[in-house]
Specification:
Elements: H1 2-24, E1 29-30, E2 33-39, E3 48-52, H2 55-65, E4 83-89, E5 99-107, E6 115-122, E7 138-144, E8 151-158, E9 165-171, H3 177-185, E10 190-196, E11 201-206, H4 213-221, E12 226-231
Domain PrcB C-terminal: 84-143
Organism: Cyclostephanos tholiformis
Pfam families: PrcB_C
Length: 233
């Protein structure tokens, strides 16, 4: 009884290992693609992921996409005997700073006609200075693929950049603000340095992915000529 139970367990484990091995050995091939058009202004106001396999369908889509242009550009030339067109649109957003980008087009097992389109979306962070105009981010590409297989889209959000660590410095009256600034700009983690020309004040931004607050503060306090270091929140 015990031996039979062990035998079943071993067989189940062997089957599981075989399935894992088969899945791991499935090869995915990335197919080259070229950008037809990419931007943030379009007459297409709703989110869209679409595939165009004929010249007529693509021409109708292109007319809809460009209908708000003062002089609509001609329909791009695509050889639909060997290519398809893939379009990804974010839809209308109420400011700038939004983006979308096709990053890869993958084909499954050898001989498969199915494709997976991977794209990244990006949104502005709260501190970004962006246009307050309506935008419609999009990316249109053509792919060398003539199969009639299924095309699926997989999107992922690009995380907003980390907020910088900001400091306000005062420079001692008997020190050179130019020399102090030069020393600060030499730190690898410094993103930007700005100064008030009429006052002995310098604003410094550090990359928070490279240093923490205490490390940045110690760097600044170690610069000769820096009189005080305060966080700028």
């Amino acid at each position: 009884m015990t031996m039979n139970w062990l035998s079943k367990t071993q067989r189940a484990a062997a089957v599981a290992l075989l399935l894992i091995s088969l899945i791991a050995n499935i090869s995915v091939t990335s197919i080259p693609f070229e950008t037809i058009d990419k931007g943030v202004n379009s007459a297409i106001e709703d989110p869209l992921t679409e595939v165009y396999r004929t010249g007529g369908d693509f021409a109708a889509f292109w007319a809809r996409h460009t209908q708000n242009a003062w002089e609509p550009p001609p329909v791009p030339i695509v050889d639909f005997a060997s290519q398809i067109v893939i379009a990804v649109f974010r839809g209308t957003k109420f400011s700038g700073g939004y983006g979308v980008e096709v990053v890869s087009v993958d084909q499954g097992e050898s001989g498969s006609a199915d494709l997976v389109v991977n794209f990244l979306t990006s949104d502005p962070s709260p501190d970004d200075m962006v246009s307050q105009a309506l935008t419609q981010a999009y990316h249109i590409v053509n792919v060398n693929h003539s199969g009639a297989g299924r095309v699926t889209f997989e999107g992922s959000g690009k995380p907003p950049p980390a907020r910088p660590i900001k400091f306000i410095l005062t420079v001692a009256r008997d020190s050179s603000k130019v020399e102090v600034r030069s020393k600060i700009e030499a730190f690898p983690a410094v993103m930007s340095v700005q100064e008030l020309s009429s006052l002995s004040i310098i604003f410094v931004d550090f990359d928070s992915e490279k240093v923490n607050v205490d490390q940045a503060r110690k760097m600044l306090e170690g610069v000769n000529g820096v009189e005080s270091v305060e966080r700028d929140r």
